[in-house]
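Lay summary. Proteins are chains of building blocks that fold into shapes, and those shapes determine what they do. In this project we predict the shape from the chain. Here is one chain we studied, written as its sequence of building blocks.
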Amino acid sequence: MSSNSPTIDHACQHKPKDYKRALKPVWCPGCGDYGVVNALYKTMADLNLQREDLAVVSGIGCSSRIPGYVNAYGFNGVHGRALTIATGVKLARPETTVIICGGDGDGLAIGMGHFPHAARRNLNMTYIMMDNRIYGLTKGQMSPTTEHDLRTKTSTKGNIEQPINPVLLALSVGVTFVARTVGTNIKHMSEIFKQAVEHNGFSFVHVLSPCITFRGKGQFDNLESRTHFLEPGEHDVTDFREAHEKTMFGEKLYMGVLYQQKKESFMQRYETIRNDFMQGSRKTVVEVVDEFLP
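And here is the predicted shape, written in a compact code that computers can read:
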């Protein structure tokens, strides 16, 4: 097993409840994040991940509470810095399965600058972005993904800014695994999460996670009428152009793996360089110093 692979415990088959902490979630009733954390429990159990080799990292926001609800190593960081912290964890302990949980505000506002660099490094980590298109924790301001014209506490006459499409962004910066799912479908989420964790490289999963408190109940009906779950073979995940078309927000919201590229991960490239160096000239410290002395 390579250092990029999930660490699996073959001696004991875990169950979803084994990954739950005693701490109870404090999200609003009906929040889509409940579905996400339960899908994560199922994913971890299906992969039989060792809890001592599992790290869940987050920034700030409603969704960023998840590390506190998972019975594994967890880190709740500062706003927008989840990817940098996760990068440090993965570089220090490559054998660790690293899952990043965050929201649209955390990842696409102050945290936006870290996203393309995580993509280009292609470290073997999974980034789950729960997008409710609102700042829920701070009581309903517009976020980077809030739709044009929507009225919020900070756009009382309607949002005049154009929203960011997180999936299109992921494609454009070179993420090697891009998927979309919805917080109301635990089965579909867990299937996507599993593929994302098993992917060799940086994986991004966009989760449409409704905020019942500040977005109302109507969004559930809207999601149900527009979501289209891709069937096996319906979409070529290696076709960049086709993936680009399916990232767009139109009459249909395509759910599933939209793009996947096989590419060396950061640690694989690092190990190649390291091995080449170790197998080359092995000079002593004195010999190396002597070369630089006059």
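What the prediction tells us: The two ends are 47 Å apart (CA to CA).
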